[in-house]
Amino acid sequence: MAATWLARRGYDIIGRRVRSNRRDEIDLVARRGRQWVFVEVKTRRSEAFGRPAAAVDARKRHALCRAAAAYLRRAGYPAGCYRFDVVEVVGEPGAGEPVVRQIEDAFRFEPRYRFPVR
């Protein structure tokens, strides 16, 4: 659902459930123009216990940075800018259209990751 939602907004979906190693996975890799976007999708039935994006804690951000760095290394550091987005999907199955929200640039690469300037 999140991939379709992003595609309708002009993103090209490059990969889904992209694994960089045994433990790290990127839900979606997308592109829009020169912008490479690594997307974490969080789904909840309701927001009774908070926003879905709140589940993207420091440990998850670290794992996403590690996975994205490995992806970029394997891809030969493609030209462009890189960012991390979180897409929240909230709704009960069968209860109509869920609410979908995109948090652009939700967090940055950790300083330990350095990339060639292009």
Textual characterization of the structure:
With 118 residues, the protein is α+β, with helices and mostly antiparallel strands. It has a domain at 2-82: Trna Endonuclease, Chain: A, domain 1. The protein is 20% helix and 38% strand. The chain has 2 helices and 5 strands. The chain has helices spanning 2-8, 58-74; strands spanning 12-19, 25-32, 35-44, 81-90, 99-107. Strands 1-2-3-4-5 form a 5-stranded mixed sheet, with helices on both faces. Helix 2 (58-74) links the parallel strand 3 and strand 4. It is globular.
Descriptive key words:
alpha+beta; 5-stranded mixed sheet; 5 strands; single chain; Trna Endonuclease, Chain: A, domain 1; 20% helix
Entry summary:
This protein is an alpha+beta fold and 118 residues long.
Number of strands: 5
Radius of gyration: 15 Å
Q: Using the coordinates above, name the CATH class of the domain at 2-82.
A: Alpha Beta
Query: What kind of sheet is the major sheet?
Result: 5 strands, mixed
What would CATH call the architecture of the domain at 2-82? Answer: 3-Layer(aba) Sandwich
**Terminal Cα span:** 33 Å
Which helices and strands, and how do they pair?
Layout lengths: L1 H7 L3 E8 L5 E8 L2 E10 L13 H17 L6 E10 L8 E9 L11
Parallel strand pairs: 3-4
Antiparallel strand pairs: 1-2, 2-3, 4-5
